[in-house]
Write a structure and sequence with these properties.
alpha/beta; two-stranded antiparallel sheet; globular
Length: 301
């Protein structure tokens, strides 16, 4: 594993343009060598009506994501993102953070980021631009390998950026952050453990969908937006795009009295918002992600 870490450190020093070129080859190699991955990617893309050109773009984008990760993770702890980052729509976040005490109004902010573009760069970019006013805590699923698990924690913990594992303790950490008027980040299209989601339609097929994001919003009064980091061609950097939720959550008074039905309504709204966002750039979505799998068993958080 020390050899793997050495290789990752070498890659972290390579120019982004070279990493993305290597990543394109890596993406196509994974597609060619894994029949399971190939079938899943094709099936998921077909559900969304994604054409051949965008599907091929997504194959390359998955490899580019893998190759850019060491560059994002392994730079110095307090060093800025090494590649150009441009914001489009930063005024949305400026307005939501407000100008109250310490730059906030006391209301938290929930940011949803699908498996689209460079979702690793979005939290880091937020922390660099807005973190001094309102820090961010990001929920993540720990890797199974101990070395990668330790690397995740060290690499993602940066100034004004904290991480919370997808456990009961991590959920409590998110709740504390929102109650303190801070920001949290979630991947809403990540399959949660059994008992932490509902089966809601995603591109026309039932997918086990987290209920955590909507519950946190309703329990704390936090605001809710989406954000994604567009990966520019030829290693030119990234564009960060925060947007209002395409399909806002329904007012609490209009939800069904049954808790399960209410959770389904919220999960369906979030999935439809993710669909609308993904359709803006389908070539940058991870269609090979096992979105429709059965949830893993685990303790309810």
């Amino acid at each position: 594993m020390s050899l793997l870490l050495w290789l990752l450190r070498i890659l972290s020093r390579c120019p982004l343009r070279l990493l993305h070129a290597l990543g394109t080859g890596l993406g196509w190699a994974a597609y060619a060598l894994s029949p399971t991955y190939r079938r899943r990617l094709r099936a998921n893309a077909a559900l969304a009506g994604v054409g051949r050109a965008d599907r091929h773009g997504a194959i390359a984008a998955a490899g580019r994501m893998s190759m850019e990760t060491p560059r994002l993770w392994l730079r110095d702890h307090d060093a800025p993102i090494a590649d150009p980052v441009r914001w489009e729509g930063a005024e949305l976040i400026d307005g939501l953070l407000g100008d109250g005490e310490n730059g906030r109004e006391g209301r938290g902010l929930v940011i949803l980021t699908p498996h689209m573009g460079s979702f690793e760069v979005t939290a880091q970019a937020y922390a660099e631009r807005f973190g001094a006013r309102q820090p961010i805590t990001v929920l993540y699923r720990p890797a199974r390998q101990e070395l990668l698990r330790d690397l995740q924690v060290q690499a993602r913990a940066r100034p004004h950026l904290a991480t919370a594992p997808a456990t009961l303790a991590g959920v409590r950490q998110l709740m504390r952050a929102l109650k303190a008027g801070e920001t949290i980040g979630l991947l809403p299209d990540q399959v949660p453990p059994e008992g932490m989601g509902v089966w809601a339609p995603f591109f026309g097929q039932p997918a086990y969908t987290m209920t955590l994001a909507a519950r946190l919003v309703r329990q704390t009064g936090a605001r809710l937006i989406v954000i994604w980091g567009e990966r520019l061609p030829r290693g030119a950097g990234y564009v960060i795009r925060p947007l209002p939720l395409p399909q806002p959550l329904a007012p609490a008074a209009s939800l069904p009295d049954d808790a399960q039905a209410a959770a389904l309504a919220d999960a369906t709204a979030i999935n439809r918002s993710m669909e609308a966002l993904i359709r803006q750039a389908p070539s940058q979505y991870l269609w090979g992600y096992h979105r429709y799998k059965q949830p893993r068993s685990g303790a309810r958080a």
